[in-house]
Backbone:
């Protein structure tokens, strides 16, 4: 986000261009770590490589919907939903493309930039268009209660605006009341381990980074807390402790992309994203890691 030319300046393109390799970037705004796992599995097993392309609008479909209960004040996003009058609203469904087929095959290298732990996705049927799509559950503002490890009441969830109004409230409350940082961290570790061993089984080189270590480093000590299985009775779980997990996923203790940019005085955008100089620095870091691991030597 916030780059003047995303296709040119983002770190994935800089790495691919430096190494003379094909680039396919499947990033998605606001997406979480369950999205990364799902996308890696589907991209590799689909056995189809793609070119990243600039966004192209393929078609736009205008839908009308009843103004109640969806378009109650505060329950729709002004950018996408425009109320005509008190009885109905309009929504433009814009279908876009961001990639084009390249050839059959699997990637030689997968680079994962792991997101924050408090995001997750849902698959839902739009009440407006009747289409199924994966949507994000993230935060406009997130503040952590250090005692309960839940979001503080003043936190503001950002959830799908095409849910039925009542369902939207339920999802917001689920994010704020049911989910917690301990649960989210362990679920994210499951995503990471799944991707690691999947790629290893596929014989594909891999590199892993954190976008920011701010949601990881302070929480790693909770991995040593005692955890139980519980239905009617309680018994000790098999959940791994911090040492075991970090041995499997050493990048959990590494410096994040965002933090690296801040610590080196690289500009951050108005919406809090690293800009061109930070992407260039991240690209250098990835290239060094590729060379250190000797991924693309003649014998590899």
Residues:
């Amino acid at each position: 986000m916030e780059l003047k030319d995303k296709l040119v300046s983002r770190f994935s393109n800089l790495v691919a261009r430096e190494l003379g390799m094909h680039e396919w970037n499947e990033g998605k705004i606001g997406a979480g770590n369950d999205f990364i796992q799902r996308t890696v599995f589907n991209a590799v097993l689909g056995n189809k490589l793609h070119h990243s392309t600039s966004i192209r609008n393929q078609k736009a479909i205008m839908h009308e919907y009843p103004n109640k209960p969806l378009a109650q004040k505060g329950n729709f996003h002004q950018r996408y939903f425009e109320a005509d009058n008190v009885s109905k609203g309009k929504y433009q469904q814009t279908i876009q493309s961001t990639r084009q087929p390249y050839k059959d095959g699997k990637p030689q290298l997968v680079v994962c930039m792991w997101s924050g732990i408090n995001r997750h996705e849902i698959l839902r049927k739009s009440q407006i268009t009747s289409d199924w799509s994966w949507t994000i559950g993230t935060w406009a503002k997130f503040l952590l209660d250090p005692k309960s490890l839940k979001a503080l009441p003043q936190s503001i969830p950002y959830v799908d605006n095409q849910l039925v109004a009542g369902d939207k409230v339920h999802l917001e409350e689920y994010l704020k009341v049911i989910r917690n940082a301990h649960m989210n961290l362990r679920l994210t570790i499951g995503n990471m381990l799944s991707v690691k061993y999947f790629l290893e089984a596929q014989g594909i080189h891999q590199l892993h980074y954190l976008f920011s270590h701010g949601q990881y480093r302070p929480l790693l000590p909770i991995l040593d807390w005692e955890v139980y299985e519980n239905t009617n009775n309680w018994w000790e779980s098999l959940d791994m402790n911090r040492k075991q997990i970090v041995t499997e996923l050493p990048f959990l203790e590494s410096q994040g992309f965002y933090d690296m940019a801040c610590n080196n005085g690289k500009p951050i955008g108005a919406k809090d994203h690293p800009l061109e100089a930070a992407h260039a620095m991240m690209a250098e870091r990835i290239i060094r890691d590729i060379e250190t691991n000797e991924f693309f030597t003649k014998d590899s």
About this structure: Residues 6-47+106-118+179-293 form a domain with the Rossmann fold fold (CATH 3.40.50). The two ends are 34 Å apart (CA to CA). Confidence is low (pLDDT under 50) at residues 69-85.
